[in-house]
Structures are given as C-alpha cells and as structure tokens.
Amino acid sequence: MPSHDTPEQSLTPERTDPEVARLVLADANRTHGTTYHLAKPLSGGFQSGTWLLRNGRNDDAAAILKWSPHRTSAPLILRAGHAVERARAAGYPTPAWLATGVAELGLPYHIQQYVPGSSPRRLTVEVAERLIPVLEQQRGLDIDPQHCWSKYTRDQLAGGWDHARKAMAGSSAQGAGFVASIDALFTSFGQVELPTGDLVHGDFRLQNTLFRSERVVAVIDIEAFGSGTRAYDYATLLTVDDVDPAGWELTRLAGEQVAGPGVLAHCFALVALELADFVRQCVPGRLPVILGPLRDRAEALLR
Ligand SMILES: Nc1ncnc2c1ncn2[C@@H]1O[C@H](COP(=O)(O)OP(=O)(O)OP(=O)(O)O)[C@@H](O)[C@H]1O
Ligand SMILES: [Mg+2]
Prior knowledge:
This protein is α+β, with helices and mostly antiparallel strands.
C-alpha cells in the first residue's frame, strides 16, 4: 500500500520520547478541549508510550495517555474505542476511553480513565479465582467480528508460525527441544475447530490486570480486543512467568472447559511459541529462563 507520510513523518518515533508525548497530548487537548498535562511515564509493554496525566483544572483527577508510534495502527485503535464502549456496557471491567484520535504527526492515541490498583505478581489460586469470572464474562461478548483471534490462530497454526518455529528451533538445543514439545502438543489433538463468538483480550497477562483489596478492578491494555474464543486468553494466562502449581491447574481446568482441551492446547501452542520468539528477539538473556517452564507446561497440556 502506498504511504502518504511525508519523509519526516515516516520516521518511527521512540515510544519513550517525552517530547513526542508532549506533542501528542497538546494535539489531544486542542481537539477535545481538555487541559491534561504529563505527570510521569508508566513502563510496561513494548508497543506504546503510556503516561499518567493530571488535569490542569483539577490536579487530583488523573487519566492515562497511550499513544502508538505505529501510524498504521490508527484504524485498530479507533475500532477498539467502540469495542471498549460495548464491552463496558456489558459489564466488562475495562476503564472507559475518554478521548480517541490521531495526532498531527499521524500518531494514534487514546486517553482513558485512571483506575487505582496494582497487578498481582503471581498466578496463585486466589488470583485465578478472581480472574476466571472475568474471563467467563467474555463468553458470547462478540464485540468485533472483523478482528477474529480464532482466524488469526488458525492461520498461524496452518503455516504462518513456520518462520518463528524455525528461528526458535535453530537458536539452541533448548530452543529445538521447546519447539518439539510445542509441535507434539499441536499434533496430539488432531483436527481442532476453534470457536468464535467470545470477546478476546489478546494479551491477558497479570500485568494487564489491576487489583484493589484483592478484587479485579480493571483489565487494561485492551487495544488488541477482538472476537474469537476466550480459551485464547486462558492460554495466555497459562504462560505467565510466576505461577504456583495449584493456580496454574485451576486456570487450566477452566480453560479446558471453554471448548475442550484441544482448543486450549492449540491456543497455548501458538501463544507460547510467539512469547518465546518475542523474548528471543527482544530480551534474549531471558530466553533460557522461560523455555524450560513453557516446555513443562506444553507437556502438561498433552492429551
Ligand atoms: N487505566 C489505567 N489505570 C491505572 N493504571 C494504568 C491504566 N492503564 C495503564 N496503567 C498503568 O500503566 C502500565 C502500562 O499500561 P498498559 O499495560 O496499558 O500499557 P503497556 O503494557 O505499556 O503497553 P503496550 O503493551 O501497549 O506496549 C500498567 O502496567 C499500569 O501500571
Ligand atoms: Mg501492559
């Protein structure tokens, strides 16, 4: 597709650059008639610039600015804004989006409600018991059929993941063993039909949940929202670093009940492979630490 960016616009800005955040926020304030200012950067993922905002008129009121250095993700973010409204209307605990737009630089952004809370570090039984009802709320909440995680998973498992599989297998003996365990998991269930019709968060990790007084107050980082099977989000949760065996087992049982162990296994095969491949490229020092546990978990999900 031809790009309409001017040469200086086509440079990808650094997502941690405060100068870009200032420009995006100034644009947003002009567009929406708001008076936010940047309070502090919030570290998290690798995709967006995320900032705590304060309101010029009422310094106690906080909000969150997220902007993306990827100009092509503008349609996704604008669509996610509508999906958030529909999910919230159905009672899903994700913060309201207060404003959405594309800044002059071509950078998509949104401003969302700030929800005080903190993310659990470990998937314990107590944490799983709180998160499973949230995942079950996603059942039948088919908010954006245009963006289907089951179709994405099917396409990846049908060959889209081959490049990542080969790169992982070629990275080390441990990488090759990990890919063998993922392949064994994938093939042991034969033909598997991935259902659709649920809401899928797309990155349902502990860091993207906020708890307060041991209750889930928000599920955040939902820009990749779509339709598909919520088993995909269970599979993501089963890859988290820090788990205790009983918390993992409870999550696995609930995930298998969604549409059977084969559906959970296929989702896990893809999510685990993509996580490992991401770590291989972005945080290679961590790869040896995560491959062993991911392999053990793949084996635990075998038929
Ligand atoms: N609505 C919110 N209320 C309170 N805190 C929030 C909210 N949104 C984000 N945060 C805080 O900011 C951190 C980063 O936010 P978020 O997870 O949305 O983005 P990210 O992981 O940095 O982004 P990405 O994965 O898109 O690169 C969170 O871990 C959380 O501490
Ligand atoms: Mg996050």
